[in-house]
Amino acid sequence: MTQANCHGSSAAAEVPSQTRRVVLVGNPNVGKSAVFHGLTGVYVEVSNYPGTTVDIASGRMGDVGIFDTPGVYGVSAFNDEERVARDMIVQADAIVNVVDAAHLDRDLFLTLQIIDMGFPVVVALNLMDEAKANGMEIDVERLSAELGVEVIPTVAVRGEGLAELKAAISRTRRGIPTPEVAARLPEDLSPADGVLWLEDDPATCERLGRPGPGLREEVYRARRQRADEIAERVIRETNSGASLSTRLGRLTLHPLGGLVVLAGFLFLMYQVLGVWVAQDVVGVTEEIWMGEYYVPWISGLVARLINPESFLGQILIGEFGLLSMTVAYLLGLLLPLVLGFYLFLSLAEDSGYLPRIAVLVDRLMTKVGLNGRAIIPTILGFGCVTMATVTTRLMGTQRERTIATFLLSLAIPCSAQLAVITVMLAPLGPAYIITFIVLLLLVYGVTGMLLNRVMPGDSSDLLIDLPPLRLPRIKNVLQKTYLKTKGFISEAWMYFAGGALLISVMDQTGALAALANVLAPITEGWLGLPREAAQAFIMGFVRRDFGAAGLYDLALTPHQAMVALVTITLFTPCIASILIMFKERGKRQAAAMWAGDVALAILLGGILNRILIW
Amino acid sequence: MTLDQTKPGQVFVIRTIDDPHARLAAIRFGIAEGARAACQTVLPGGPVVVRKGKQEMALGRNLAHRITVELVEG
Fold first, then answer.
1. Which of A270, A428, A433, A417 has the alpha carbon at shortest distance from A334?
2. What is the ipTM of this complex?
3. Which of A68, A333, A390, A487 lies most in the core, judged by the most C-beta atoms within 10 Å?
């Protein structure tokens, strides 16, 4: 245990490649990715960790492989991020532990856990500037002596200390383990396995085939006590003044001020996305670039080779043409809105504002059987319901996951669908927009409250760490926005094209008209919509936005537009979301949710139609 | 008294956390039993925001009700 060894612990034996694996580990929001980019430079690969929404970045520093991990507060299996981080940590040859100097006592828990696990470590004491701004002074040498590993002070966003950190990576060594933990480690296990086993890590216990000793809380307490003692010895507070960011952070949670800030944030989002992008930008990209230049050009080009009235001609450049409408909607309409949405999301994430929204809405969310953290999948749902459904895994109980998944599939329109909805509603004026929002909120709230009433069990409580508010780094925000938008569009186009193809073929073979006739009692009789609206609903099965896009082309009265949009929003999530729903919630529950979506959509759409007529 | 009864500015020592999962999470955040912390904000009917040093943490109202604290000043 005490022997320093730069060439990896036994836990890394499974790594096939010969390169040294250096894994970056740290709490959330400690500037880990800035350290990562500082170490690896430009050539970075971002890949999705199998079976999760967790993205992992990897790169090289000379002949060393550098791997980033999701931010975690400890090595365990409380959620997906933690499981991914744990699996990557146990395969590490050495660890760079990025620590937030301004929150040293909190972060030392993870540092000590990694040291207890016997990994060769170097600590990057990051955000030294923030610690200083908060009036803290840290005795780096003393900290290094307490931990038994090198500690390098850094300000990663400005590149300070990164050269020293790079040099120190070749000198990583095992630190001084927590005595109470080391004394309990079984002799026949590696320290990494031993610590995870002591802490009842389910995957480790199963792999070793021996049940955990039930000592997790005891081990945690011993480590926390040591972390607090070390922090006390090395931190000196020079003043207790609150920095501007701290004061701003407090304002965002002030019972009244917080709501004003939130309202301001939402209003800004509406102005930018709903007014500027959805009307001005899309007016140019969709109507002019696509409508006046691209579509006539491609139609002319194809018409020279194929008769536009032929079967193939219709499929390529007809009403739902693969080369005309599909491309125009995807690039002219979806792309600008999805881009705008992810830009806002990245800003909210990187500035530390997102968790504050969770705190503000916690009281409301508990009414629908969720807690404030559910706002994260909900907001993500406005981007992509599929992705949001996967992130419901961060909720504490199965009960919450069921409620959140159903509400997402029912009442949350994704960015693609919102794009079309905004474009259709905006010209009708604010009254229609407000009615639409109120109706969806009502459906969300009432359905959630009913589910909360009838479903057995209890939901978990809010318990979150609030990161300091920071000015987001433009480069990070743009990179994140780009990656998310790219991921979304590269997945969406297949469903979009598939849907267009299906509808074109059905249209050409007469199946569409036949189906529209069969459904006429519902569309015409109950919902009061034109018969062709059935097409939109059929398309809605492929992608929701695509369904809404189908409505875009119909000449609807404002009243009809309202009914149609509410119905199609509630109607059904896209095929991708449905598949994920089945995967995440099981066949029976997912099928029930899907049927519930369709039935509720038609029922409520019809009632709305009656109310509007009346 | 319980955490949900504290008022902004009050300083206290956390005595017991009657929730196994929250207890473990609190140890990792550094706001465990025995820790000295202060009430930062209470949202009406909503979560309590607790501060220890530079660290801030939000706890749902129900959870705050299951945490007993002992006032030290304020």
1. A417
2. 0.94
3. A68
